[in-house]
Amino acid sequence: MGPMESMKVVVVGTGYVGLTTGVTLAYLGHRVIGVDKDPEKLKRLRAGKSPIHEAGVQELLASLGERLAFTGRLSEAVGQADVILIAVGTPSKQNGEADTRYVEAAAREVAEGLLPGRAYCLVIKSTVPIGANRRVAHVMERILTERGVKAEVRIASNPEFLREGMALYDSFYPDRIVVGALDAEAVETVRRLYRPILEQTFEPPAFLPRPGGYGPPPLITTDPTSAEMIKYAANAFLALKISFINEIAGLCEKVGADVTEVARGIGLDSRIGARFLKAGLGWGGSCFPKDTAALIAVGQEYSYELPIVEAARTVNSRQRQRAVEKLQVALKGVRGRTIGILGLAFKPGTDDVRESPALDVIRLLLERGAHVRAHDPVALANARAALADMHGVSGEEWEVEFLEDPYQLADGADALVLATEWGEYRNLNLERLARLMRTPVFVDGRNLFAPEAVRRAGFTYLGVGR
Ligand code: UGA
C-alpha cells in the first residue's frame, strides 16, 4: 500500500457526526472543508472552538491548521472536492418518520456547485430512511440536467456508529466501516478516504491511544439499501437490548433478584455479550428514540408491524414512570415534595439533553405537583433551554431550580434521583448529602452506587432491579 493519498473533502453539517468526521479526516491528512448554515457556529469553529461538548474535538480542532476550514457557502465549496459527505440532521416528523428535507436540500445545493467534467463521490452519513439514497441520486441528476452540466456523481451510503462522548474514539477505532454503493468506484473512493483507519497506519492523537488488542476494522461493502438498514437495525437492537434488561430488572425487583448480577451472568455468554445491559432509567439521546420511531414508520409504509421494536419503546418510557412511582411510594406522594435530580444529560460525557430520561422524570414529577431542583456538571444551560416555557395542562407555571452545587440540591430536599451516571457523582459525600435532606431517599436511576454504601450513609436506597 502506498502512502496515504490526501483527498479534498467537503463535510456538509457540523453537528456531532459532521464535526467529528471532519476533524478525524483532517487529522488523517485530508483537506477538509466543513459547511454549516449557522453563522454563530461558523464563527466559533473558525476561532478553533468546538460548539459541542465532545471529548478531544476541541484539542484536535485547534491543531489542524489549514487542513480544516469552515464555510457557509456549500455550492462554492464543492466544486474542487473529491468527496462530499452529507452529515446534516434528520429530525423526527410528527409520525416518527425521519425528515430528509435537510439531506435533500444539501444534495440540491451540492448539485448546484458541481463542475463539468469532474467526478465526485457523494457519501451519505446522515441516518436516512430506507430508499433515501435513490431519492438523493434522483435530485442530483435532475439539477445537473437542468444546469446542463455533465459531472459524474457516485453515491455511497456510509452510516456512522459514533457514540456521543466517545465520538472520536469510535471514528478512529471503529468495530467496522459500512459502505453501501451500486458501483465499485464509489466503494474504492470510500476505502481510500478511510485507508489510514482501515489499516490503522495513523499516529494516534496523544489523548487517544490505540487500545490494546485492537485490530484493523473490516470494511463491509454492500448495497445502499442494506447499508441504510444496517444503521437502523443496529440502533434498534441496542435499544431493545437495554429495554430487555430493564424489563428483567422490574421482575428482579418483584422476586428479589439483583439485575446487575443477572446482567453479569448472561453477559458472559458470548452470544449475548456484556455491553448495553445496564438497567436504569432507559435510553435517550438523539438516536435510539428517533431511529426506533423511524424504523416503525418505515414498517408502516409497508403495512408491516414491528412489535419487538415497539415493545422496546414501551418498556423505555415505563422506566421513567417506574422511577417516579418509587418516589410516590417512598414519600407517600410527591405533591409538594422537593425532589433533587442529579444529572440532566442523556448520558455522561455530553451536554446533550435530547430525549434525556432526566427530563422525562422531571416532567412527570412536575405534573404530579412536586417541586424540582436539578444539577448537572455540564448540561445545565441546555436543560434550562429545553425546559423553558414548559407548563402544565391548565397553564400553570412550572419551575425547575437549576443548581450548580449538589449539596445545595440536597439541602432540605425529600429525595434525590440520580438520572445520569456522571463519574464525579461517585465522589459525592453521601453522608453529608443525607444529613442535609429532610427525608434521605435516594433513587439511583443508573445503579451507580453500591446499595450498602448509600444505606450506610443514612439513605433509603432504591436502585433499578436490585
Ligand atoms: C447511539 C449508538 O450507540 C451509536 O452506535 C450510534 O452511532 C448513535 O446512537 C447514532 O445513531 O448516531 P448515542 O446515542 O450517542 O449512540 O449513545 P449510547 O452510548 O448508545 O447511549 C444511548 C442511551 O442508552 C443513553 O441514554 C444511555 O444512558 C442508555 N444506555 C446505554 C443504557 O441505559 N444502558 C446501557 O447499558 C447502555
Write a concise synopsis of the structure shown.
With 466 residues, this protein is α/β, with parallel strands linked by helices. The protein folds into two domains: 215 residues, 3-Layer(aba) Sandwich (Rossmann fold); 225 residues, NAD(P)-binding Rossmann-like Domain (Rossmann fold, 3-Layer(aba) Sandwich).
Plain-language structure description:
The protein has 466 residues and is an alpha/beta fold. The chain has two domains: 8-222, Rossmann fold (3-Layer(aba) Sandwich), CATH 3.40.50; 238-462, NAD(P)-binding Rossmann-like Domain (Rossmann fold, 3-Layer(aba) Sandwich). Helices cover 43% and strands 14% of the residues. It contains 18 helices and 14 strands. Strands 3-2-1-4-5-6-7-8 form an eight-stranded mixed beta sheet, with helices on both faces. The protein binds uridine-5'-diphosphate-glucuronic acid. The site of uridine-5'-diphosphate-glucuronic acid (UGA) has 22 residues, from α10 and α12.
Provide the structure class. Answer: alpha/beta
What is the overall pLDDT average? 95
The low-confidence parts are none
Please identify which CATH superfamily of the largest domain we are dealing with: NAD(P)-binding Rossmann-like Domain
Distance between the termini: 54 Å
CATH class descriptor name of the largest domain: Alpha Beta
CATH topology grouping of the largest domain: Rossmann fold
DSSP helix fraction: 40-55%
Hetero groups: uridine-5'-diphosphate-glucuronic acid
Strand content: 5-15%
